Amino acid sequence: MLAKRLAPLSLMILAIVWGSTFFSTKRILTVLPETDFLFVRFLISTVVLAIIFARSWKMSRRTLIHGILLGLIYGTAQLVQTFGLARTSASISGFLTGLYVVFTPVLGLIIFRIKVHRWVWVAVGLATIGLAVLTIRPSADTIIGTGELLTIVCAVIYALHIVLLGLWSTPQEAGALTLAQSLSMTALFFLFALPGGITLPPTTTDWVWMIYLAVICGGLALLIQTWAQSHIEAPKAAVIMCSEPLWATFFAILFGGEHPTWLFAFGAATILVAMYLVVRPPPTKPSPEGISPPAVDVPHP
Fold it and tell me: What is the pLDDT of residue 177?
């Protein structure tokens, strides 16, 4: 019961951590190609996870296969997102990527017949509105081109990862499943980074940021998501995690010199309401006062 209460809070902390990475990631990508950044980041993440979960190397074949598949899916989503971002604006990319909040319950329903409560659908709609308000700028080019289509594909792949992770993750094997995912992603990014040669962070400051992104925002974040999704339904997890743009904007206001606007307030309020709808305790029907439940006759042997 405690784990079910901690899972939504853990995912919200995860979204906050992701939202705090905007400035550090932007800094690193000025000195490293995207594929090299992803490879080095997840290589460090895998090494750290391998040390922490040394006993998890003896994972079951089922967990290993699931972890490899999940890692390939998540890694593919990141690569597609990167290629899409190079061909569209950051604001449009942020919104289209966040559409995994819509695709997650849709894929779960179509592929796996996972039914979703009507209030979760309401939360998905509210989160999408809030996401649009926080990410899309009036001056952005909204024509659907190659970059936009790639980013939509990326959102579908992210949604597939969330759905499958919710189906395959268990509290007992969260560490092993996280390790297998990270190892799979590292191998995938290595294949894409190798042809042009692998560039490493050039300065000590860049290495510090890289280690932060790898350990806190990479390995630890993936572990939190894997564990939390063993206790919370995939559509609810998607609603909470899509609050990342809210926290990114919050940190931009706090540290980046941006100013709060009414649009930010509206978008933030909408997403927070959506999060409340998916984490609120289910309503209970109180028994009529003074009426006891009917007695049940238990036959004696």
Answer: 95
Structural tokens at position 223: 């572990």
Secondary structure of residue 298 in the 3-state scheme: coil
**Residue of 170 and 248 predicted with greater confidence:** 170
> Is residue 212 scored above 70 in pLDDT?
yes
Q: What's the pTM?
A: 0.84
Please list the helix, strand and coil fractions of the chain in percent, rounded to the nearest 5, in that order. Answer: 75, 0, 25
Of the candidates 219, 111, 243, the residue with the CA atom closest to the CA atom of residue 167: 111
d(Cα 240, Cα 100) in Å, to the nearest integer?
11
* pLDDT-based confidence at residue 31 (cuts at 50, 70, 90): confident
> Contact 117/126 with Cβ under 8 angstroms?
no
Of 223, 241, 220, the residue nearest 177 (C-alpha): 223
Task: Report the SS3 class of residue 299.
Answer: coil
Instruction: Report the C-alpha dihedral over residues 65, 189, 171, 242, rounded to 10 degrees.
Output: -130
Question: Rounded CA gap, 257 and 2, in Å?
Answer: 39
φ/ψ bin of 281: left (φ > 0), alpha (ψ from -120 to 50), beta (otherwise): beta
Residue 222 near residue 45 (C-beta atoms within 8 A): yes
The pLDDT of residue 299: 41
With contact defined as beta carbons under 8 Å apart, do 128 and 102 qualify? yes
pLDDT of residue 301: 42
Backbone angles phi, psi at 142, to 5 degrees: -105, 10
